[in-house]
What we know:
Elements: E1 2-6, H1 10-21, E2 25-30, E3 45-46, H2 54-69, E4 75-76, E5 80-84, H3 87-102, E6 108-110, H4 112-118, E7 129-133, E8 137-139, H5 141-154, E9 158-161, E10 165-171, E11 174-179, E12 184-187, E13 189-192, H6 198-204, E14 222-228, E15 238-240, E16 245-248, E17 254-257, H7 273-286, E18 295-302, E19 312-315, E20 322-326, H8 330-345
Helix pairs in contact: 1-5, 1-8, 2-8
Amino acid sequence: MRVVVIGAGVVGAAVAAGLTRRGAQVTVLEARTPGAGTSATSMAWVNANNKLPEAYFHLNHAAVRAHHDLPGEWFFPTGHLECAVSHQHKELLESRVTRLESAGYPVERVTARRARELEPDLVSPPGAVYAFFPEEGHVHPMRLIARLLGEARDAGAEVVCGAEVTAIEAAEPGVRVGVAGGGTYAADAVVTCAGRWTQGVAALAGAYVPMLDPARAGQLTNGFLVTTTPVPARLSRMITTDRLNLRPDGAGRLVVQALGLDGRAEPGVPVPDDVRQDILARLSAVLPAAEGAEAERAVVGHRSLPGDGLTVAGFADPARRVYTVATHSGVTLAPLLGREVAGELYGEESALLAAFRPGRFTDGTAGPPPTPARRAGQQ
């Protein structure tokens, strides 16, 4: 089978690798460079922690396990420690922990003493409560993309950069994909993994897959992400608190976000100096050993968010030649999607993906657009 994969972010790279494992002849078309879209500005937290509804939770939980089945220097299965200080956050955390326990999701209520053992440099606010999610982790996105694209290339896949797709047309018995400049690629099937550009790319094939527009300011589709200079602070895992989320990023650097500030994020506008300084001040308050850290990199990340907030995965045309994938949980889902999507192209229906077909946007079953999801107490 000849397959064109559109997009070389973490999802496109995973799908390309999954298809080559099946013996497909794969060409990956990337408009820019691999990982240049949302993958490059992701918090890269691997989890199913607060993923609803139930089908979305089960999809993400299976994906967490898929990361554990694909270990390597890009994945850090060190767990996630959550600290709640405000009354509202404590109530929501307890409700979520109870729900996750009943669903069989690994979670532990831990004492302040145990939290200090896990992260000795972290401030322990008076009255704080903690939960530890041992199965979760984080990845270095570009290293994961390198691993997946490398596997695909080793199996014969071709990765073409600077290839912006401008046409997707039926060409019996398959499909033809045109790119800017006049090149064309013939295939038996095409898989679109174009992230936040999915709506426009799918439309080339006559499919309707609405995406929330990052060109509009707002915290749903845009968010601040700061990577610090190297600091002498001990941090081993993903941390979420009332006002800040952070994780290690290698060589002493930290990746930091403050979701409550994302309402000020505007696409195409640099991170304001006061936002940058606010995030760094919050970091010092949470992790005093990081005092003096500077922002080595501060960006406005643009999230890939389907119209109802849930993953899209399935054939977008009656002839089953154009398969579309789009998701907000790209880093978490990538290894699983690589396996499941490849299976579907080879005729194996995935029970995990059955609830996420693109047809829901035309048959009236899609839900309403998501509301901003932020942790209780974050400001």
